Amino acid sequence: MRTGELAAAEPLLGHALQVWSSRLEPDAKDVLITRLGMAEWQVRSGRFAAAHAALDALGPLLADKPPQLQFRHQSLLAELLQREGRPQQAVQAWRQAVAMAEAQYGSDTISTARHRVPLAEALLDAGHPVQAREQMLRAAPLLREQLVPDSELPLRLTRLESRLGSAPAHQG
Question: CA neighbours within 13 Å on the CB side: how many for 6?
Answer without folding.
Answer: 10
